[in-house]
């Protein structure tokens, strides 16, 4: 019995070894067949793969030429270096991506390329919603570069800020205010708000307000003012000097005189305004024309036209009609004190 059982165990182990060898051989054969299939497919793809590699290489070469050509073209449209470089880079990448997609389609991976492009589009849309303010600033910067409403060095007013444009980026515009602060304004705010470019025309109008006394001759005052302003040497002679009376003020008849000067920086405007004021004041002093001080007339009574002594009660006056003072008001007390002294 013992010999029979041992023989049976040996036969079972031999059969299990044969099964293991058979399974290993089958797996090896399948692997070899798979490798042979891959090798056959790879050999079949060699012509397409070679063409795909050539297309990718050509796309890089063409992309360089496209980048140079785009940068040259953008210089004619925009003077902003950052925007020109951005557009040239986008064109460069677009050519490369197009070449890679064509190459993938030649080697049978067109569906993978389409799926990757779709995924990239979805990711880009999600990022656009997440960073929409930043994206809006970049788009606004691109629009400013194309439209060119101002350049570096121009005097710009936008929103509540006025100053010299120091730097223009894709996302922000840097302005140095006249008080010395550096203001960084998002391009979206610059594009959404009204802009005043004082440097674009190269000249600026000065509106100088003044007034003369009611007793002065208005025609004479106008003539003197016009002659004074017209004699300013740095005035823009292509523009006429205008003077208009515009208000009956509390103590003067007011007018505004307008003239133009060459404008390159803020001090040009301030100097011309200050000089015109001094010249006009001297001209009026020489011709006996008065620039009056503010005059206030006190009028008593509800209707007006009543004097002070007509409004105050009579008890506040002495018998001679003069108003009582503090010393007079205190005299009865002193007299009572004098009368009390003998009794003491």
CATH hierarchy class name of the domain at 30-127: Mainly Alpha
User: Distance between termini?
Assistant: 163 Å
| Broad structural category | alpha+beta
CATH topology of the domain at 30-127: Helix Hairpins
Helix content: 55-70%
Biggest sheet layout: 5 strands, antiparallel
Q: Which percent range describes the beta-strand content?
A: 15-25%
Provide the succession of SSEs.
HHHHEEEEHEEHEEHHH
Using the CA coordinates, give the radius of gyration. Answer: 47 Å
Order of neighbouring strands in the sheet with most strands:
4-3-2-1-5
Mean pLDDT rating = 79
Poorly predicted spans: 1-6, 327-344
Number of strands: 8
Number of helices: 9
What does this structure look like?
Among the domains are: 30-127, Orthogonal Bundle (Helix Hairpins), CATH 1.10.287; 150-197, Roll (SH3 type barrels), CATH 2.30.30.60; 203-286, Alpha-Beta Plaits (2-Layer Sandwich). It has nine helices and eight strands. Helix 1 (2-77) runs antiparallel to helix 2 (81-106) and helix 6 packs across helix 7. A hairpin with a 4-residue loop joins strand 3 (172-177) and strand 4. Strands 4-3-2-1-5 form a five-stranded antiparallel β-sheet. It has a three-stranded antiparallel β-sheet with strand order 6-8-7, with helices on one face. Mean pLDDT is 79; it is low at 1-6 and 327-344. The protein is α+β, with helices and mostly antiparallel strands and 344 residues long.
